[in-house]
Write a structure and sequence with these properties.
By secondary structure, the chain is α+β, with helices and mostly antiparallel strands. The chain has one helix and four strands; from the N terminus they run H-E-E-E-E. The protein is extended, with a radius of gyration of 17 Å.
Length: about 80
Amino acid sequence: MKKIAVICTALLLAGCIEQAPAKNIQRIKTYQLNAYNEIAEVCIDGVVYLLYQPYKGGGITPKINANYDVYICNP
């Protein structure tokens, strides 16, 4: 039972080890959808990402064109 607890704890913490430094993130544009939701374009390591920031939760995805190529930016 202890082995299972240790393995589960290790798996849960594995994703929390490395975080991107906040100084490498540059906001490019912000689109306000309504009073609580917005979509922001940010530059992270030379790639443009779309951040969906609702009242709760949110998500991140790379911005792509019709050929599924990512947009690049100057960091």
